[in-house]
Design a protein that fits this description.
Length: about 250
């Protein structure tokens, strides 16, 4: 079985694949201070019921990636391992000014989105930052837009405004909040939905001018459920998009 590990700045997502079937997935907190041994103890406890024989990894956290390499060397020696980094075949041309700047997760999501939905496409990844990654009809990564993530914005507001605080991110009774909590919930959830819709609309204009096609818009990331169904431009919610992309990249490098 394939163990796919996607290390993000806030959360790490792990998934077990039996062939093309995702058997189970887990979401845990990313702690860049974790050592290789601590990572091994955590991951082993999660996948204890599965026979893992291959690994596929991507990481946007250099400290954790370093410890992951040590963990793999110590506990997975002899096992086939695919780490998304320069030199790995992804099948995704990067049509940007500096390809080295592009995070591994954005490349992985591009491959998965094009494989599942074709192109053009826009992947909206709701994580530590909100990433909009644009995919051409040929599966090329065209660039995109980056914005502060939902939780970062809520934390910043609570820390900078004396009378405001962190609130549970659920839909309020109405867009017009009747109290401070509901006003914060409305501004956060409907505000981010509007931000996504505005960016998608502007990107769509450029894509239609170039390719004559409206893009498919796919939401992913841990905070996507907050906005999916509210943002009017999102067509699909694919919570396991990055894990699927890791499986696809592993297959390209077998």
């Amino acid at each position: 079985m394939l163990l796919a590990i996607d290390v993000g700045n806030t959360n790490t997502v792990l998934g077990i694949f039996d062939g093309e079937t995702l058997e189970h997935s887990w979401r845990v907190k990313t702690d860049p201070r974790s050592t290789a041994d601590e990572l091994w103890l955590l991951y082993r406890s999660l996948v204890a019921d599965y026979e893992v024989d291959v690994l596929a990894v991507c990481s946007t956290v250099p400290a954790t990636l370093r410890e992951l390499r040590t963990m793999i060397k110590s506990y997975f020696s002899g096992m086939q391992v695919t780490i998304v980094e320069p030199g790995i075949k992804t099948g995704v041309p990067l049509l940007v000014d500096n390809p080295k700047e592009i995070g591994a997760d954005r490349i992985v999501n591009t491959l998965a989105a094009h494989t599942l939905y074709g192109g053009p496409a826009i992947v909206v990844d709701f994580g530590t930052s909100t990433n909009l990654d644009v995919v051409s009809p040929n599966g090329e990564f065209l660039g995109g837009a980056l914005a502060p993530g939902i939780e970062i914005s809520v934390d910043a507001l609570a820390s900078r405004a004396a009378q405001l605080r962190k609130v549970e991110l659920v839909l309020p009774r109405s867009v017009i909040g009747k109290n401070t909590v509901e006003a914060l919930q409305s501004g956060t959830i409907y505000g981010f939905a509007g931000q996504v819709d505005g960016l998608v609309d502007r990107i769509t204009v450029e894509l239609e001018a170039t390719y004559g096609q409206r893009p498919t818009v796919i939401a992913t990331g841990g905070l996507a459920p907050l906005v999916f169904g509210i943002a009017e431009t999102i067509d699909h919610h694919e919570p396991d998009l990055t894990l699927i992309g890791l499986r696809l990249i592993h297959e390209k490098n077998r």
